[in-house]
Write a structure and sequence with these properties.
Blueprint: E1 14-16, H1 20-31, H2 43-50, E2 61-65, E3 68-82, E4 85-97, H3 106-121, E5 125-131, H4 136-146, E6 151-163, H5 180-191, E7 196-198, H6 202-211, E8 215-219, E9 225-232, E10 240-248, H7 254-268, E11 274-279, H8 286-290, E12 294-306, E13 318-319
Parallel strand pairs: 4-5, 7-13, 10-11
Antiparallel strand pairs: 1-2, 2-3, 3-4, 3-7, 5-12, 6-11, 6-12, 8-9, 9-10
Amino acid sequence: MIAVSSRTNSPWPCEPLRSLSDAADVMLRSWKQNTEQPLLYTPEFLQSCLDYPGDLPSLCPAVYLDGRLAAFVFGLPRRASYAGRELNLLLCTFLTVAPEFKRRRLGVEIWAECVRQGRSAGYDGVIHYCVQGNPSNEVTISGARTAGYEAVRVFEISYLMRLLRRPTGNEQDHPQSCDLANFLGAAEITASRAPLARRWNIAEARWQCHLRIGAFRLQGEDKAIISGYNMKVADDQRTICTFVEDILWESTPHEAQLALLNRFVDKCSHAAQVIVVLLLGYASAEPFLSAHFQRSPRKLNAYLTLWGPSIATPLQAMYMDVL
């Protein structure tokens, strides 16, 4: 469900996003101007993100100028624990300004509007990510400040990557299993050991493991789980990447971790050409390095914006998804 707000403090006329197809088109045109190759955000992928079964509504404020989509941002519901509190966080992502409307401060204003709408909708704060060195860092910090809050940089995220070779034989008989009760139990153990951690109910876990577009998961014999999703790159070859999101093997011996990871990589190689894992500190990088993953120079900044008495502080680890 997308929230509709009739009230705005923005100098630009904000309204709910009208079309996911228009959003996908603007993303492709705008993000191609970045130095890095963008991912292919299709209308189907965006709809899948909005289908997340959150308790609070998704937000998609947008600005239309001259009858065209000029700027927008997505706010998606996530439940989390932080500093002993249970929080409803708004995951703000996909901030985009159409190329023909850049340099008008639209990014700052649409971000500020999403933050304001988030508080009005009942959220406790905002979490978001920016590539280090990208102007979006300053835009989003300024947007939070315009709304009256502080976006605090709480974590630096690194990447590991591995190129995959398509197998020459038949696909091994490793079904994409993932028992949701096991997922919830393993995620609870992981969450208890991370200062900022995602919390799950059964509907959210089902979306993560089974319903989201491109969902990809594997469970080991000892109930350890790796899950993620497949997505295309907006290059000429439409390269497929597997993004690892949940590494739930806290109580699993190293040998079993490596065995499950090798099975996961083998499964991915039948569809994807690249596999990517983000290092969030809640799971060791050592099994991935043993499996020939390489460090990437790309880094992300994680920001947390809270209202009320709590002010975000730097984290040693976090268990959250990154969009």
